[in-house]
């Protein structure tokens, strides 16, 4: 499936801003199941300095600096990508989950060495005994790793309520667990905390999910949003992505932008500015299918 993704972030300041330094994770990354056809980033007003680099996790990071007075900032990213359904582990490549921590520690190849970084706590995902306790019911001794994780994802979906009014980007996992509610970021963090607490490797994935309007109704422009899920390392296969918000594996409708230890590694836009006072932030996202000339899907 081919998509065109538009992500527009606007800041309107109450007073002029004299200097702004920002980084953005808005350009999709090439993956085995995802081909980036083209991608661009436009900043208004025109920045004094722009750079792009690849970070430790392989993400495309855009840096820009505005060094002139401005009262509005707009960051517009437009990309075209082609997404296929990722491959899943074969039955003989789904080891007992409790054998995996030892394999991660002792297998010296590059894939296992890289995965070890995602077994450790991170700034937004500290050690969470309550998250591990929640996961234990799905991970009895000897149960296959993929099967156990699939059940954990289902339990997060079933036991927690999607509530965008309850949490912020700073809400700790303990509160999400206590109140059984949150958003995609919270559910991804919860799953990662549980898996890491069991000695497994799990990473945070940010991106987009195509949403479709009810039958017979038009799609509202700008009404899509960023999305988040987590990825689990399965020895003998590689990374497998799970979406606990939707109780699913990722498919053709999931578009990957960036991968990190947690949300703080892959924030869509972050930075510092001088002046401005109060500001208003608006974000508009559109994920549109690119249909063939004959209109077939």
From TrEMBL:
- Which Pfam family, any one of them, does this sequence belong to? Transglut_core
Q: Where is the signal peptide?
A: none
Q: Where is the Transglutaminase-like domain?
A: 176-246
The UniProt entry's coiled-coil ranges are none
InterPro entries found in the cross-reference section: Bac_transglu_N, Papain-like_cys_pep_sf, Transglutaminase-like
Q: What is this protein called?
A: Transglutaminase-like domain-containing protein
């Amino acid at each position: 499936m081919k998509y065109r993704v538009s992500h527009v972030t606007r800041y309107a300041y109450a007073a002029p801003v004299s200097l702004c330094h920002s980084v953005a994770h808005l350009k999709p990354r090439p993956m085995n199941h995802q081909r980036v056809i083209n991608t661009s980033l436009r900043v208004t007003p025109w920045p004094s300095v722009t750079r792009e680099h690849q970070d430790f996790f392989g993400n495309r990071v855009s840096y820009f600096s505005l060094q002139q007075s401005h009262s509005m900032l707009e960051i517009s990213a437009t990309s075209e990508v082609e997404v296929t359904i990722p491959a899943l582990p074969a039955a003989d490549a789904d080891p007992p989950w409790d054998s995996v921590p030892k394999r991660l520690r002792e297998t010296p190849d590059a894939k296992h060495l890289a995965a070890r970084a995602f077994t450790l706590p991170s700034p937004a995902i500290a050690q969470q005994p309550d998250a591990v306790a929640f996961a234990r019911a799905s991970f009895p001794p000897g149960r296959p790793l993929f099967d156990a994780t699939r059940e954990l994802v289902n339990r997060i979906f079933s036991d927690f309520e999607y509530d965008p009014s309850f949490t912020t980007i700073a809400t700790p996992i303990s509160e999400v667990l206590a109140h059984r509610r949150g958003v995609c970021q919270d559910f991804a963090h919860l799953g990662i905390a549980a898996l890491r607490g069991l000695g497994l490797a799990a990473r945070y994935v940010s991106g987009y999910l195509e949403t479709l309007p009810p039958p017979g109704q038009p799609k509202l422009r700008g009404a899509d949003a960023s999305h988040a899920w987590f990825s689990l390392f399965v020895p003998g296969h590689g990374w497998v992505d799970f979406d606990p918000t939707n109780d699913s594996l990722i498919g053709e409708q999931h578009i990957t932008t960036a991968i990190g230890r947690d949300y703080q590694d892959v924030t869509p836009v972050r930075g510092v500015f001088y002046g401005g006072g109060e500001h208003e932030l608006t974000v508009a996202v559109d994920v549109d299918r690119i249909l063939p000339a004959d209109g077939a899907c």
